[in-house]
Amino acid sequence: GDARVRGQTGVVSERRGSYPFIDFRLLNNTTLSGEIGTKKKVKRLLSFQRYFHASRLLRGIVPQASLYLLDEDYLGQARHMLSKVGMWDFDIFLFDRLTNGNSLVTLLCHLFNVHGLIHHFQLDMVTLHRFFVMVQEDYHSQNPYHNAVHAADVTQAMHCYLREPKLANFLTPSDIMLGLLAAAAHDVDHPGVNQPFLIKTKHHLASLYQNVSVLENHHWRSTIGMLRESRLLAHLPKELTQDIEQQLGSLILATDINRQNEFLIRLKSHLDNQDLRLEDAQDRHFMLQIALKCADICNPCRVWDLSKQWSERVCEEFYRQGDLEQKFELEISPLCNQQKDTIPSIQIGFMTYIVEPLFERWAQFTGNTPLSENMLNHLRRNKAKWRSLLHKQHSSSRSNDHSGQVTGSQEQTLNEEETP
């Protein structure tokens, strides 16, 4: 257990503070009365994010029924799609509709089966399904981007990466299970705002994790809470479950975008020195971290129709945060000002400085496989489309300028955005 988590009962009671617009429920300390007496209840306190914060019941939200209320036609189409789950043009939005919003649960059940994980780890199917439902329901469907569909999309991408020969030839069942679980749960209980927002609003999670990888730590701890509550791995040796919990944390924490350069520098060093030894568990784990980082930001590498939808969704989430910051007279965060930060400009910057460097190194690692080439081709085409849309926006703003001149700020923005 985590002594720091165990002792922070003051944090458990989650004050609302002066920012009532986030879904932080006031939980009175009397919630604890009469519940500390049993060993089981004490264990549940060790993962308080799940029990006190993420729990749908304690937040007053009735869990949705996990039954698939679909006719055979829809189920048949969903099954047909799963037969092509390893294809890069897999349409997760369509799959989510066909499964009545259960894309993450359905996908995980299928992948755990095809990878032989259920048999290898002797997992109980009912318990496994219950755990997957817990994970899916702890995503916030009202988030335009950080929701269960994003988790399903990342999981499908992770499945594709785990099949790359350079990696697949060395992976153990534990590696595969960790990769899929981390992908599925990497953003669980995401509040729809970023870390700087939590810090400047003095949210309890920022205090708990001392302003370091706040969201990622919360996603990890919430996942551990659900694993323990479900007892999915209770039949495995304690040492193994502890190792799984720690490795899950290492994977999920790697998705912190603030650590991007740290991982890129280390990956470049390994590739330049050709010293990756995938027989070594430590090197395999590092490449699983890289694979998860790729899966998390692979939207610009998808076919245009899918990529564009994700771009619009993530920017909508940014803009919602900006609107909240404006409403409460906080400084508007970068990329969150709808009046200044356009979708094309946000996407071009994201592709240029974050996505391209990572995926070029990933292609170098895989040996430029068809999948890696396909992703890079989509990335370049999508970037060109966003550049074209940006140019049209600026042309339109010029024509609407009564003086017929581009303003100084427009010209500066255009120069910055067109810089490769």
UniProtKB/TrEMBL annotation:
Q: Where is the active site?
A: 146 (proton donor)
Q: What PROSITE patterns does the database record attribute to this sequence?
A: PDEASE_I_1, PDEASE_I_2
- UniProt: AMP binding residues: 146-150, 187, 296, 347
Q: Which organism is it from?
A: Pteruthius melanotis
Q: Which InterPro entries match?
A: HD/PDEase_dom, PDEase, PDEase_catalytic_dom, PDEase_catalytic_dom_sf, PDEase_CS
Return the Polar residues bias intervals. 396-413
Family to which the UniProt record says this protein belongs:
Belongs to the cyclic nucleotide phosphodiesterase family. PDE7 subfamily.
Give the enzyme class. Answer: hydrolase
According to the record, cofactor stoichiometry and binding are noted as: Binds 2 divalent metal cations per subunit. Site 1 may preferentially bind zinc ions, while site 2 has a preference for magnesium and/or manganese ions.
Q: Which residues bind Zn(2+) 2?
A: 187
Q: A single GO molecular function, which one? A: 3',5'-cyclic-AMP phosphodiesterase activity
User: What metabolic or biological pathway is this protein involved in?
Assistant: Purine metabolism; 3',5'-cyclic AMP degradation; AMP from 3',5'-cyclic AMP: step 1/1
Hydrolase recorded as keyword: yes
Q: Which reaction does it catalyse?
A: 3',5'-cyclic AMP + H2O = AMP + H(+)
Residue ranges annotated for the PDEase domain, each copy included: 70-393
Name a single GO biological process: signal transduction
Positions of region (Disordered): 390-420
Please identify the protein, giving its name as recorded: Phosphodiesterase
Cofactor(s) recorded for this entry are:
a divalent metal cation
* Swiss-Prot/TrEMBL keywords: cAMP, Hydrolase, Metal-binding
Any idea of its EC number? 3.1.4.-
Residues the entry annotates as binding Zn(2+) 1: 150, 186-187, 296
Recorded hits in SMART domains, A to Z, give:
HDc
